[in-house]
Amino acid sequence: MSAAQPVGDMPRLAVGADLVAVERIEALVRRYGERFMARVFTAGEAADCAGRPESLAACWAAKEAAAKALGTGIGPVAPNEIEVVHDSARRPALRLHGRAQALAQQLGLTRWAVSLSHDGGLALAVVVALG
Question: What is the Cβ-side half-sphere exposure of residue 67, based on CA atoms within 13 angstroms?
């Protein structure tokens, strides 16, 4: 059974979580610069994170967690197809594009929630999808 299969009369539910060392993302940005940023983050995410390594790491963790909720991991779904956005109160949310969006539709996953945190050199994201 995949992560998004219904169980009895229950709605579809998928969960993903990821933990990232902030130092790892900081090293990738230093080593690959704009090439890494453009491949992984949308322009909106890059602007929103403003180069803050802990914010970039939390954003990366959210992408990994969402890809896990989709049952694929990063690879079949590109990192920049999963976008972390914020509402007017700065609450994080997800916006899917391309293959990520198509896969979510195929799985019947229509509502997404994300929680982000960082402390002590680590960034954490938990993603819940419901359909």
Answer: 21
CB 68 within 8 A of CB 17: yes
Determine which helix (DSSP H) or strand (DSSP E) holds 130, and give its type and residue range: strand 122-130
Q: Which fold has domain 13-130?
A: Ribosomal Protein L22; Chain A (3.90.470)
DSSP string, 36-50: HHHHHS-HHHHHHHT
Q: What is the pLDDT of residue 1?
A: 39
Do 70 and 100 meet the contact criterion of CB atoms below 8 Å apart?
A: yes
Structural domain boundaries in the chain: 13-130
pLDDT tens, 61-98?
999 999 999 999 899 999 999 999 999 999 999 999 99
Choose among 39, 126, 121: nearest CA to 79.
39
| Mean pLDDT value across the chain | 93
